[in-house]
Design goal:
The protein is mainly alpha-helical. It has 2 domains: 60 residues; 69 residues. It is built from 5 helices and 5 strands; from the N terminus they run ααβαβαβαββ. A 3-stranded antiparallel β-sheet has the order 2-5-4. It has a two-stranded antiparallel sheet with strand order 1-3. Strand 4 and strand 5 form a beta hairpin. The protein is rod-shaped.
């Protein structure tokens, strides 16, 4: 019984050592994967940060934004719209678009996208009132 016991004990100890080696290898693999994922996340965050700066540049009319629309004499569409509405009172968005294009406002947007852009530009400016059905006038100034 002693030899069998010693042999079983050695197998048990060997299996424990084998278990510890597998456990150590698994921990090492997990740490390497964590390191790899951390590096990938840092790279993604760096890319998002750069993208955020690019989008901010686009919103400010730099780089990408300037090749999409060209301002008339350096004026944004909201200023062109104000000039047109000062002369004409209230107008439908399509008439504002027609007059802006006739005066030289250049864009590669089709009419549907232009109307959406017009509404956003006017709302962001805050100097316009939508009378309904895409008809616009200037806000009355407070004395």
């Amino acid at each position: 019984m002693g030899a069998d016991f010693d042999e079983s004990l050695e197998k048990f100890i060997a299996s424990g050592k084998e278990f510890e080696l597998r456990r150590a290898k698994l921990i090492q693999d997990l740490l390497q994967e964590r390191s790899s994922l951390t590096a990938r996340i840092a790279k993604i965050n760096d890319g998002l940060l750069k993208l955020g700066h690019q989008e901010a540049s686009d919103r400010n009319g730099n780089e990408k934004g300037t090749n999409r629309r060209k301002y008339l004499g350096g004026k944004p569409l909201s200023e062109i719209g104000k000039d047109i509405l000062r002369r004409h009172g209230s107008l439908h968005g399509s008439k504002i678009e027609e007059l802006a294009r006739a005066e030289g406002f250049k864009t590669d947007m089709d009419s549907k996208n232009f109307q959406a852009y017009l509404a956003v530009a006017f709302q962001r400016d805050g100097g316009f009132v939508n009378l309904g059905r895409n008809t616009w006038r200037l806000k009355k100034r407070k004395p």
